[in-house]
């Protein structure tokens, strides 16, 4: 071997070693200080943020990033707000795509505004009118944080708490939060447990459990923002949506339900047959769209708590990624990022521009504690609250 050949050989070897080191780096993810999860080499982990960016202390508790996997799907969750940080699934060409909006470090979550990216919201997800409700003859006053109303549990809610996390295996993470009697104005010590499971065939299952020591109300949901073309990849107005709901709960100008369950027939709210989000979103004659600044409404699901009946289906126009929603919950808040304004930095150098993501928050109807005609959200001591939602991903070519 002459000297030039030797140098060439050496540089190729160095390049290969560097490449191997990089690959190795991207197939290992540290899920906590003590645990290291090795990931399947068929899964591209480079879309998952670095775990070390989530190692911090907040309210005296340690925050971390946990990476769950099963086959070709990966989900990253932080115990800060029990938030989904990333959901990586293959697109129609088999390319790994991160469909969940999120930040690449925990500081952006702790300092960020009230976006609720990926969070578990509680004790009461969605709005309670004027931050007041009556239970067993006693009036409770909640923290108000959305004009005159209480939204998503109040000032801090569950989305700004550090949850206790236990990774049960490669694909399952269990998070627990104990909300004290009187926290944000709610009665009863409430223990909530949320379990994220990445199932086979690209399904993410979220199980919720809760128990209380005093009569209380609760409405737990996940507030993940999805863009099925990949987070930060532009408008979601061309996503195709089906919502299995003949009725919805119209709202007043502060987004509190009027109490009526109204038909979607003949309105821009009719997604019983698939149409794009953008098709009727600018229907200026529709007062409900004005109040919501677009879609920000609760649908009364025809599936009525039957988890085997599809509640909704969304398709990304570019990626071909399809997300089906199944739930035990009676309602679904469809929100299309009307308050996204580009002021938050997302993963991979992206921004949260206007309507570049949508949410499908499976839940009880907003303001149920003040609405006698809505299904009850009360929980009593001795009762076990249990709920499940599945987001199932596939592709359409
Ligand atoms: C919910 C609400 C919206 C908005 C978002 C967060 O989905 O219904 O009005 O507050 O949360 O920005």
Strand runs, count: 31
Rg from C-alpha positions?
22 Å
Q: Tally the structural domains.
A: 2
Strand content: 35-45%
CATH class of the largest domain: Mainly Beta
Bound molecules: alpha-D-galactopyranose
**Contiguous uncertain segments of 5+ residues:** 1-44
Give the class from helix and strand content and strand pairing.
Answer: mainly beta
CATH architecture of the largest domain: Distorted Sandwich
Strand order, sheet with most strands:
14-15-16-17-31-27-26-21-24
Largest sheet: 9 strands, antiparallel
Separate helix tally:
3
Task: Give the N-to-C terminal Cα separation.
Answer: 51 Å
The CATH topology annotation of the largest domain reads as: Beta-galactosidase, Chain A, domain 5
What would the average pLDDT be, to the nearest integer?
A: 91
């Amino acid at each position: 071997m002459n000297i030039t050949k030797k140098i060439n050989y050496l540089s190729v070897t160095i390049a290969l070693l560097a490449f191997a080191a990089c690959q190795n780096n991207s197939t290992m993810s540290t899920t906590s200080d003590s645990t290291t999860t090795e990931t399947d080499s068929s899964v591209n982990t480079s879309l998952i943020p670095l775990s070390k960016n989530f190692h911090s202390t907040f309210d005296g508790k340690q925050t971390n990033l946990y990476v769950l996997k099963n086959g070709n799907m990966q989900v990253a969750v932080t115990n800060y707000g029990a938030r989904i940080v990333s959901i990586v699934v293959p697109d129609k060409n088999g390319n790994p795509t991160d469909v969940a909006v999120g930040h690449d470090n925990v500081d952006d979550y702790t300092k960020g505004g009230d976006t609720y990216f990926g969070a578990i919201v509680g004790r009461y997800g969605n709005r309670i009118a004027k931050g007041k409700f009556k239970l067993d003859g006693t009036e409770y006053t909640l923290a108000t944080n959305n004009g005159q109303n209480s939204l998503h549990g109040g000032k801090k809610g569950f989305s700004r708490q550090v949850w206790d996390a236990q990774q049960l295996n490669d694909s399952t993470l269990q998070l627990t939060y104990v909300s004290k009697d009187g926290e944000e104005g709610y009665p009863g010590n409430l223990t909530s447990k949320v379990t994220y499971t990445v199932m086979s065939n690209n399904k993410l299952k979220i199980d919720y459990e809760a128990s209380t020591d005093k009569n209380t109300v609760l409405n737990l949901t996940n507030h993940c923002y999805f863009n099925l073309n990949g987070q930060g990849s532009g408008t979601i107005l061309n996503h195709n949506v089906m919502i299995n709901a003949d009725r919805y709960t119209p709202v007043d100008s502060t987004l509190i339900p009027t109490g009526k369950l109204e038909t979607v027939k003949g309105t821009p709210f009719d997604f019983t047959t698939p149409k794009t989000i953008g098709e009727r979103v600018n229907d200026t004659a529709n007062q409900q769209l004005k109040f919501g600044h677009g879609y920000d409404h609760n649908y009364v699901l025809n599936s009525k708590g039957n988890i085997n009946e599809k509640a909704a289906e969304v398709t990304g126009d570019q990626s071909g990624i399809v997300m089906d929603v199944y739930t035990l919950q009676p309602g679904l808040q469809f929100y299309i990022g009307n308050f996204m304004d580009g002021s938050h930095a997302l993963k991979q150098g992206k921004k949260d521009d206007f309507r570049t993501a949508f949410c499908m928050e499976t839940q009880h109807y907003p303001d149920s504690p003040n609405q006698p005609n809505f299904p009850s959200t009360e929980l009593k001591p001795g009762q076990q609250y249990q709920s499940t939602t599945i987001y199932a991903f596939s592709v359409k070519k």
